[in-house]
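User: I'm writing a tutorial on reading structure tokens. Could you give me a worked example: one chain, its sequence, then its tokens, then a sentence or two explaining what the tokens reveal?
Assistant: Sure. Here is the example chain.
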Amino acid sequence: MSDRRRPTLHDVAARAGVSHQTVSRYLRSDPTVGPEPVQRIRAAIDELGYRPNLMARAMRTRNTGVVAIILPGWTGPERTVAAASDEAHRLGYRVEVVIGVNEKPESLSTLAAELLASGQVDGVLSVTPLAVDPRSGGVIVQTEEFDDRLRAVEAVAADLATMEEIVRRLYELGHRHLFHVAGPQDWRSAQLRRTGYRNACERLGITSHGEYEGPWDPETGVRAITSLPDDTPVTAVVAASDHLGVGVLHAAFRRGWRVPEDLSVTGWDDLTLVRYGTPALSTVRVDRETSGRHGMRRLIAALRNEPEPDPPAAAPTEIIFRDTTTPPR
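And here are its predicted structure tokens:
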């Protein structure tokens, strides 16, 4: 085939040894395509570098073939977005990633509504909670909490159980006085992590010296530690995210508290930078890729009026205790 000619659906079919109708069904995620043809079609698409002709499809169907991903401006959940984008491309959609400059659900919801009203995208996948007006049109999938009308999907699995396990492991190290830095409670994940913290403290007889709630920002961690008295008996701080945990480390250093000698600290997310900090932050690693792929599958299934795909197994979490966690003095 000439390098100057764009590969077509028929080229993929010929390379895979199937009919072009089978390739078309594969691109629509038709479950009747068997596993062996699926493997051959995927291999042919990769070898040929095939991409569906979105403009031609838009002219036939009056759909744009474009979906948007909204994420808050203060962070970049790269793994979730990368996996969701890859899944959209595999299913024949082009992706527009939109970064909101305001993390508040109301502001991001307005952005989602404007995107849908513009007609430039068919649907929206949001990796942050939205306060969507039930009367708004279009298809929106969130990756934070389930809603029948929005077809939203839980992104972070096992938050509650994993947080309970963190507290239990701190208890086994000898910690009996804890403090929780919580994320914003309009996030389902922040709610579950706080509930897990409370449940474990109550079950194990651990004294909790409070909870400090705020945005997913290091400054929340700084303010949380600043709120503690000089003679606090707290020996471990459980932060609901790595961003919060980094703020805790910074504030502890400013107060002259040594980590982990005076204060153990845990975070959540396993951001790349926290692995290389001094000290390296204890944290939770989450399978964001599964969440991103499944969220995109549900969005595209909704756009095509197809049954929702089967939910994946609970995304695994791994607790990683690094340099910021040790038995109390």
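What the tokens reveal: Residues 188-204 form the longest helix (17 residues). Confidence is low (pLDDT under 50) at residues 144-157.
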